[in-house]
UniProtKB/TrEMBL annotation:
<dbReference type="GO" id="GO:0003700">
    <property type="term" value="F:DNA-binding transcription factor activity"/>
</dbReference>
<dbReference type="InterPro" id="IPR038116">
    <property type="entry name" value="TrpR-like_sf"/>
</dbReference>
<dbReference type="Pfam" id="PF01371">
    <property type="entry name" value="Trp_repressor"/>
</dbReference>
<protein>
    <recommendedName>
        <fullName>Trp repressor family protein</fullName>
    </recommendedName>
</protein>
<dbReference type="InterPro" id="IPR013368">
    <property type="entry name" value="YecD_YerC"/>
</dbReference>
<dbReference type="GO" id="GO:0043565">
    <property type="term" value="F:sequence-specific DNA binding"/>
</dbReference>
<dbReference type="InterPro" id="IPR010921">
    <property type="entry name" value="Trp_repressor/repl_initiator"/>
</dbReference>
<dbReference type="InterPro" id="IPR000831">
    <property type="entry name" value="Trp_repress"/>
</dbReference>
């Protein structure tokens, strides 16, 4: 894993902090304080690219909708399909949560 190159104690403390956030509002505030506008845009763009690749969208559609370069799309695609399966886990959990929400609304 790439993240293993960061000192273990520092990364543990950072992720403990992330996991302590309790709402979207807290996430908005934290990431607004932590990252620059461009860093937030980059992270969000990569997430959207991963989501669209997961949904089997074409590069052309992804470029048009996210304004990501083909290099960024290719980089995200490598992580999505040859990485740690974290995107797959995340998107499946989101799908499950959405199904539960839909069932509760019925």
């Amino acid at each position: 894993m790439q993240i293993d190159k960061i000192e273990a104690k520092m990364i543990d403390e950072f992720f403990d902090g992330i996991l302590a956030l309790e709402s979207k509002e807290e996430c908005f505030a934290f990431f607004d304080d932590l990252l620059t506008l461009n860093e937030n845009k980059t992270i969000i763009q990569r997430y959207q690219v991963a989501k669209m690749l997961y949904e089997k969208k074409t590069y052309q559609t992804i470029e048009k909708e996210t304004h990501a370069s083909t290099a960024t799309i290719a980089r995200v695609k490598r992580s999505l399909f040859d990485g740690n399966n974290s995107y797959d886990m995340l998107f499946k959990r989101i799908e499950q949560a959405n199904k539960l929400t839909e069932n509760e609304e019925e």
